[in-house]
Amino acid sequence: MQRLTAKRTVHNVSLSLSRRCISSCTSQTATAAPVDEFLGKLPPFSYTPPPYTGPSADAIINTRKEFLSPSNSMFCLYKNPLNIVDGKMQYLFDESGRRYLDAFAGIAVVNCGHCHPGVVEPVINQIKRLQHPTVMYLNHAIAEFSEALASKLPGDLKVVFFTNSGTEANELALMMAKLYTGCQDIVSIRNGYHGNAPGTMGATAHSTWKFNNVVQTGTHHALNPDPYRGVFGSDGEKYARDVQDLIQYGTSGHIAGFICETIQGVGGIVELAPGYQSAAYDIVKKAGGLFIADEVQSGFARTGDFWGFEAHNVVPDIVTMAKGIGNGFPLGAVVTTPEIAGVLTRRCYFNTFGGNAVAATAGLAVLDVIEKDNLQENASMVGSYLKGRLSQLKEKHEIIGDVRGRGLMLGVELVSDRKLKTPATAETLHIMNQMKELGVLVGKGGHFGNVFRITPPLCFTKEDADYLVETMDYSMSRM
Predict the structure, then answer these.
(1) Are residues 331 and 425 in the same domain?
(2) What percent of the chain has pLDDT above 90?
(3) Most buried residue among 175, 358, 394, 440 by CB atoms closer than 10 A?
(4) DSSP label at 400?
């Protein structure tokens, strides 16, 4: 009887939401003028893309369905997918030339801004001269970039290995930890995401991203130190005790390493509880393990610090990175100490495209742009401003359960009941689609798909932040 009641309740909630969505869509169709007037508030921008003459969105959808992996066809954020054909700084343009404020940046990738001339021009110059010499020959691009990248890290973190993605970087880091320590056990955090190859899939603690017939042994998942949903609230030290328990009761007492995101990205922009990383660091080091900081999404000034781990007073043994490192070029890296790096000399380790001359040129250009355009300072300033505005919005709308994050890596979690923290998954999709109609693109994440992931290019302005908040407010007011 209880199960039947629960099913009826869920059905009624879904039906109610559907009616609201239909009513909202009907109302919007009948009153297009207010939406048009709203769009007029989009901050001015002095760029007009050239006319697009390529295939339509429908044609691309059909081609994707026929020739791309079915898994790729699933990843369209909107009911009516966008055909994005042009980009400039914090804006994207569709096939009709319509402009959108990009608050997702290709999943926290385009930190410098779309087609930033400081990245584009050096890359064009390099690709005209030499595309791929292989690291078996000498070339200045990989040498200059590795030196510049190492200068951004503390302590003895100065040996760089280049990869093509975040998954590759994390796979390499896990392998190095196992080789260096002679142990196999890895500890990671529930709700974390580290990649989709066997080792990183094992470290990932999201059922959504794990295949049941892929061997994923030797990984232990600690309690997620989530201040909003976690069992210990914001008490980081209590969560860290679970790491100690896992090591004490689930391993020989010695581990290869501990890997964690400073702010969980795919998991819904979850900040680790205060004091957690430093407490976990001490526990891991006592167990002989290496501390691996996954900076794939939080690195390269996104959080207002250059690296997310800087806010936690720890110096990792290994740092992995990708996404923002190349502003859209397929590039990743692992940075570690000379001692740890030495383990790869025991056999031959080689990555054909790692440190490719064009990608390395892009990476070096990214570092230059971040410094010259003061993007780290802007991420801190505009991010704090935007977080404050979103927190004000939370006071107005009961559907907002939590606002969190740092810099321009922010999350807004939606719930249908604040006390029970019931995920408002369907409402999240509806509001996302409404915001798209108003010219703002955000991402979503979290295990239940009920968190807005706000990770715009770091050139985002306060005016852009205001417009994002206004569109979110408008969309929520019409639920």
Answers:
(1) no
(2) 84
(3) 440
(4) E
Q: Is 337 exposed, middle or buried (0-12, 13-18, 19+ CB in 10 A)?
A: middle
CA separation for the pair 118, 330 (Å, rounded) = 18
Q: What is the domain-level CATH number for residue 96?
A: 3.90.1150.10
Joined together, the tokens standing for residue 135 give 């690291």
Give whole-number Cα distances, 240 to 87, 191, 221, 243, 249, in Å: 43, 15, 12, 5, 15
Residue whose tokens read 């999709």: 429
Locate 290 and state its tokens: 């290496």
* 349 occurs within a structural domain: yes
Residue 333 sits in the same domain as residue 429 = no
Are 200 and 304 contained in the same domain? Answer: yes
Lowest mean pLDDT among 5-9, 57-61, 136-140, 193-197: 5-9
What is the DSSP code string of 243-287? HHHHHHHHSSS--SEEEEESEETTTTSEEPPTTHHHHHHHHHHHT
pLDDT-derived band at 7 (thresholds 50, 70, 90) equals very low
Mean pLDDT value across the chain: 91
To the question of pTM greater than 0.85 for the whole model, the response is: yes
CA distance 454 to 383: 10
Angle at 439 between CA 434 and CA 441, to 5 degrees: 75
Residue finishing a domain among 320, 350, 373 = 373
* Average pLDDT over every residue of 370-387: 98
Range of the domain at 70: 66-116+375-477
Letter string b/e over residues 176-196, b meaning 16 or more CB atoms within 10 A of that residue's CB = bbbbbbebebbbbbbbbbbbb
Residue 406, SS3 per DSSP: strand
- For 221, 298, 309, 462, the CA distances from 294, given in Å and listed in that order, are 15, 8, 9, 29
Other beta carbons within 10 angstroms of residue 313's beta carbon come to: 10
The total domain count for the chain is: 2
Q: Which residues contact 313 (CB under 8 A, 6 or more apart)?
A: 277, 278
> Tokens representing 164?
């093509």
What distance in Å separates the CA atoms of residue 40 and residue 231, rounded to the nearest whole number? 45
User: For 332, what's the count of Cα atoms within 13 Å in the CB-facing half-sphere?
Assistant: 23
**198 and 212 belong to one structural domain:** yes
